């Protein structure tokens, strides 16, 4: 299908014939290229154009927003949450499933009249404490060192920006 940039009829802007472009609208690369003329001041009182910014040296370190340590920190924090949550909720879900589907096991006695269900229910509190301890351990071991390293990088980047601004 060929395109005629000068249609034989001029149509109102709201009604175009099918298979045509609206007036003064051309498909890409169908019109001659013109070099833009330099801008001229429209008023003698117009302020002068802003000077071009000085050329800066490229950064040696990527900006904090693009830092790979942030991805690593998010991943470590995600694993920390999953581990602690699955520890606590996994045990509680196991207790509920045993209560619903194995009532004979839960009513059985362990020691001198202590039912298995009561023993497992009493163990819920230590398991929750274990999940909290696991959360704190992974925070100290993996997440906090990464956060400290990112914080130090951010402080160094801020100092570099401040020194470059002077």
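^ structure tokens above, recovered residues below v
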């Amino acid at each position: 299908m060929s395109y005629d940039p000068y249609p034989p009829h001029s149509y109102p802007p709201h009604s175009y014939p099918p298979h045509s472009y609206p007036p003064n609208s051309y498909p890409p690369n169908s019109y001659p290229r013109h070099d833009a003329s330099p801008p001229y001041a429209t008023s003698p009182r117009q302020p002068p154009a802003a000077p071009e910014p000085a050329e800066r040296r490229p950064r040696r370190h990527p900006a904090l927003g693009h830092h790979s340590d942030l991805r690593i920190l998010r991943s470590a924090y995600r694993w920390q949450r999953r581990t602690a949550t699955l520890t606590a909720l996994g045990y509680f879900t196991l207790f509920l499933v045993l209560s619903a589907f194995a009532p004979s096991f839960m009513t059985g006695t362990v020691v001198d009249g202590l039912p298995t269900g009561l023993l497992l229910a009493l163990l819920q509190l230590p398991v929750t404490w274990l999940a909290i301890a696991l959360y704190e351990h992974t925070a100290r071991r993996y997440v906090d060192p990464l956060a400290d390293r990112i914080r130090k990088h951010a402080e160094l980047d801020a100092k570099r920006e401040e020194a470059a601004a002077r």
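DSSP finds four helices and two strands in the chain.
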